[in-house]
Design goal:
Length: 566
């Protein structure tokens, strides 16, 4: 696995643009676009493309459009159009008044198709889809001309018009470009430009029953919008000669297409088709399930947009495909949250602790720093009282060597509070389960420091039992068990066979400090010693639900350290 083979800011795309500006190729203009098809929610791979297109426009004082490539009426929905806009804004980018749809250009595209027919460069073919596939040939064999290829211009114009008028059934005819059935590039073997689809379009309704293919629409849409640099993923490299051909035949503005390697991320899938399958099959709770690599899922999980932008900058852009380690993304999230998330105390698996020598009715408001990384974030008060909760994992009756947490007779520091020593353990007589601990505290250690300089090695988080709020906490693990989910062991199985059955663990009865009473969905915190957490929209008045964004342990930092050590 690699991170990037180009340094951020100086990648090959930006170099091309710098060069174009020098030679005044587009009159000094830089105009990019992000062109999603509204057939699903955006994922982290799209974020790479968004950061690239909008980022370049910003850096070079240019513009970036948002254009919906809505040429396929059967898979597109308004819900997706809305979510895509929300996600691009959330990432921190804005298209101003330049929101466009390929469907805005259907009339123009139709006229240009008529122009190609008149020029003898397009024809109506009446072969079936299957025959067209057979006639196309293969990588090693040339294709064959369709028997309909030499229809007269008049016949083609008549048929094409009647296709548009709705006289034919789906599949009866298509419009194809007349290029070269023997071209070594399969995309140049008379590609289909229009097909008949009696489908209602989310914007044009039933106005059309023929729809342009992506190949026919894409380059012309870029041209209409005056795009200078049409940045796309590597799969379209072989389509570039076709797009160039169309633009040249029409003699219209010719953007420069540049291809880059798409983002692949370990332990997840970045394909709208596969993500849709997970949603529709109920494998996740929706597009915004916090385990999904969608931007809405990552947002719900608590990933800050700035962390995603930093990640996209760090991976850079390259010309060869690679897989990025998901722990790098998690590292960027921690790096960001470490600075901005207030630190609070929460106990996920509570164990009751009674401080025997602490007065029954006393409550102290102890001062706690909100974020030692950022003094401007101030302090807050945390209540301390006789009955507390600590983490069940922080106690061992029979501790191993080097155990610095609670155990019979051991002294530890309670963060922001006092030193306490465990003096007794109450257990269920039948099961042996530890029910509560009894401790004593040292009043001379207020704030968690001892005047006499005696050492305690362990510092635990805690909450006051009578002040704590109840919460549900959802812990997430990787969505897939394998770095490459497409690698399946059994014949006939697909990526879903590699889903991690334990990707979600729900904990109820968690206890969080009372300062979280006013937390609202989207708020992010570090729970001391546990990780970063975000309030989930499932929270209601009186019910707090948290998602664990990332644990504290940073496997990427470790990887980096080892790499540097070599
Ligand atoms: P998917 O494979 O998820 O269905 P797509 O390419 O069909 O993606 P589009 O809506 O066409 O989805 O994508 C919009 C833009 O985002 C395109 O320019 C595309 O190249 C880019 N894009 C999509 N996936 C990635 C990715 N994994 N890495 C980088 N860019 C991507
Ligand atoms: Mg696409």
């Amino acid at each position: 696995m690699t991170t990037a083979d180009s340094a951020p800011g100086s990648d090959f795309i930006r170099k091309i643009i710098v060069e174009d500006l020098k030679t005044n190729k587009f009159g000094g203009r830089v105009h990019t676009r992000f062109p999603p098809e509204p057939n699903g929610y955006l994922h982290i791979g799209h974020a790479k493309s968004i950061c690239l297109n909008f980022g370049i426009a910003e850096e070079f004082g240019g513009l970036c459009n948002l254009r919906f490539d809505d040429t396929n009426p059967t898979k597109e929905e308004e819900e997706y159009v809305e979510s895509i806009q929300e996600d691009v804004h959330w990432l921190g980018f804005d298209w101003g008044d330049r929101l466009f749809y390929a469907s805005d250009y259907f009339d123009q595209l139709y006229e240009w198709a008529v122009q190609l027919i008149k020029d003898g460069k397009a024809y109506v073919d009446s072969l079936s889809a299957e025959e067209i596939r057979e006639y196309r040939g293969t990588l090693t064999e040339p294709g064959k001309n369709s028997p309909y290829r030499d229809r007269s211009v008049e016949e083609n114009l008549d048929l094409f018009e009647r296709m548009r008028a709705g006289e034919f059934e789906e599949g009866a005819h298509v419009l194809r470009a007349k290029i070269d059935m023997a071209s070594p590039n399969l995309n140049m073997r008379d590609p289909v430009m229009y097909r008949i689809l009696h489908a209602t379009h989310h914007r044009t309704g039933d106005q059309w029953c023929i729809y342009p293919t992506y190949d026919w629409a894409h380059g012309q849409c870029d041209s209409i919008e005056g795009i200078t640099h049409s940045i796309c993923t590597l799969e379209f490299e072989d389509h570039r000669p076709l797009y160039d051909w169309f633009l040249d035949q029409l003699g219209i503005h010719h953007p420069q297409q540049i291809e880059f390697a798409r983002l692949n991320l370990s332990y997840t899938v970045l394909s709208k088709r596969k993500l849709l399958e997970l949603v529709e099959g109920g494998y996740v709770t929706g597009w915004d399930d916090p385990r999904m690599p969608t931007l809405s899922g990552l947002r719900r999980r608590g990933y800050p947009p700035q962390a995603i932008r930093n990640f996209c900058e760090r991976i850079g852009v390259a010309k060869t495909n690679s897989i990025i380690d998901i722990s790098l993304l998690e590292h960027c999230v921690r790096e960001d949250l470490n600075q901005r998330a207030p630190r609070v105390m929460a106990v996920l698996r509570p164990l009751k602790v009674v401080i025997d020598n602490y007065p029954e009715d006393q409550v102290e408001e102890l001062e706690a720093v909100n974020n030692p990384e950022d003094p401007d974030m101030g302090t807050r008060k945390v209540p301390f009282s006789r009955v507390l909760y600590v983490e069940r994992d922080d106690f061992r009756e029979d501790p191993p060597k080097k155990w610095f947490r609670l155990a019979p007779g051991r002294e530890v520091r309670l963060k922001h509070a006092y030193y306490v020593t465990c003096v007794d353990v109450v257990k269920d007589e039948q099961t042996g389960e530890v029910l509560e601990l009894h401790c004593t505290y040292d009043p001379e250690t207020r704030g968690g420091w001892s005047e006499d300089g005696r050492k305690v090695r362990g510092t635990l988080h805690w909450v006051s039992a009578s002040h704590a709020l109840d919460a549900e906490v959802r812990l997430y693990d990787r969505l897939f068990l394998k770095a490459n989910p497409d690698e399946v062991d059994e014949e006939g199985a697909d990526f879903k066979a590699n889903l991690n059955p334990n990707s979600l663990e729900t904990l109820t009865g968690c206890k969080v400090e009372p300062s979280l009473a006013d937390a609202v969905p989207g708020d992010r915190f570090q729970f001391l010693r546990l990780g970063y957490f975000c309030v989930d929209p499932d929270s209601t008045d009186g019910r707090l639900v948290f998602n664990r964004t990332v644990p504290l342990r940073d496997s990427w930092a470790k990887i980096e350290k080892t790499l540097k050590g070599r």
